[in-house]
């Protein structure tokens, strides 16, 4: 604040203050402006202008929209957590079922992949185990870095 | 603060903190007028005022658990709105008050005369326009104090709670601003808009 005006006021100003307050009280009470006191009538006009609603207003649906926005913001973290957990469960189930299928039925179809270098590598069960280990390691690092998504 | 309004405040605050359906919307509806009057009068820019009102209620929602019922909820929310508007003006380097007047500047009281036609003034749209322009031209803090006192019908202690100004300072702002408006009304001072 760069300016701090002083109160109480000298006598002339005190009379002026009294007229201001009287005009405000009369305006609020809805009394008709009286003849003969120009000071009071001026302040009645001032009080009347100051009590007028502002030209611009907030939109009528301001409260509803803001409440909806707050509700959405509050609901968002829970939704995100649920989605994240479901995704982790799904990926985990797919990895486990893939490993189980390879272990149970791999003997029948893995040799058929033994064509060329890539095929030869894919035909080795330990390559699949290595890939699973790397995948789990990557996932666990992600969980450690983002504990809020797995809580 | 009377007991009835304290209980109403407590019920509303508890409902919002509990997340009761519709409670926050009711809180916003109850106090959006107050916030709008404070912020709009401070910043005078409708778009900015709308955004700052939104920011006010988001802050209220975020900090409501810190409200300790030491003042009326109205004053507490008004205080949040005022401080947000104040920070906005400070960021934009807009002066909050008029510069201190020098001793040589005559009092507006000396500028008042007797030849002002009040009969004509009542009901004159041009006079009303001049008054509203004069209100707009007041410094932000004076505009806001006047609006809280006249439009919101807040008491001086309530205004002190909202603005953090001393009661004497508030009365002085009211006095000077209304005297200035009277002087403008009676045609002795130009309105710089």
TrEMBL record, chain A:
<keyword id="KW-1133">Transmembrane helix</keyword>
<keyword id="KW-0812">Transmembrane</keyword>
<feature type="transmembrane region" description="Helical">
    <location>
        <begin position="118"/>
        <end position="136"/>
    </location>
</feature>
<keyword id="KW-0472">Membrane</keyword>
<protein>
    <submittedName>
        <fullName>Uncharacterized protein</fullName>
    </submittedName>
</protein>
<feature type="region of interest" description="Disordered">
    <location>
        <begin position="1"/>
        <end position="21"/>
    </location>
</feature>
<feature type="transmembrane region" description="Helical">
    <location>
        <begin position="86"/>
        <end position="106"/>
    </location>
</feature>
Automatic annotation (TrEMBL), chain B:
<dbReference type="Pfam" id="PF08281">
    <property type="entry name" value="Sigma70_r4_2"/>
</dbReference>
<dbReference type="InterPro" id="IPR013325">
    <property type="entry name" value="RNA_pol_sigma_r2"/>
</dbReference>
<keyword id="KW-0804">Transcription</keyword>
<dbReference type="Pfam" id="PF04542">
    <property type="entry name" value="Sigma70_r2"/>
</dbReference>
<dbReference type="InterPro" id="IPR013324">
    <property type="entry name" value="RNA_pol_sigma_r3/r4-like"/>
</dbReference>
<dbReference type="InterPro" id="IPR039425">
    <property type="entry name" value="RNA_pol_sigma-70-like"/>
</dbReference>
<keyword id="KW-0805">Transcription regulation</keyword>
<keyword id="KW-0731">Sigma factor</keyword>
<feature type="domain" description="RNA polymerase sigma factor 70 region 4 type 2">
    <location>
        <begin position="129"/>
        <end position="181"/>
    </location>
</feature>
<dbReference type="GO" id="GO:0016987">
    <property type="term" value="F:sigma factor activity"/>
</dbReference>
<comment type="similarity">
    <text>Belongs to the sigma-70 factor family. ECF subfamily.</text>
</comment>
<feature type="domain" description="RNA polymerase sigma-70 region 2">
    <location>
        <begin position="27"/>
        <end position="93"/>
    </location>
</feature>
<dbReference type="InterPro" id="IPR007627">
    <property type="entry name" value="RNA_pol_sigma70_r2"/>
</dbReference>
<dbReference type="GO" id="GO:0003677">
    <property type="term" value="F:DNA binding"/>
</dbReference>
<protein>
    <submittedName>
        <fullName>RNA polymerase sigma-70 factor, ECF subfamily</fullName>
    </submittedName>
</protein>
<dbReference type="GO" id="GO:0006352">
    <property type="term" value="P:DNA-templated transcription initiation"/>
</dbReference>
<dbReference type="InterPro" id="IPR014284">
    <property type="entry name" value="RNA_pol_sigma-70_dom"/>
</dbReference>
<dbReference type="InterPro" id="IPR036388">
    <property type="entry name" value="WH-like_DNA-bd_sf"/>
</dbReference>
<dbReference type="InterPro" id="IPR013249">
    <property type="entry name" value="RNA_pol_sigma70_r4_t2"/>
</dbReference>
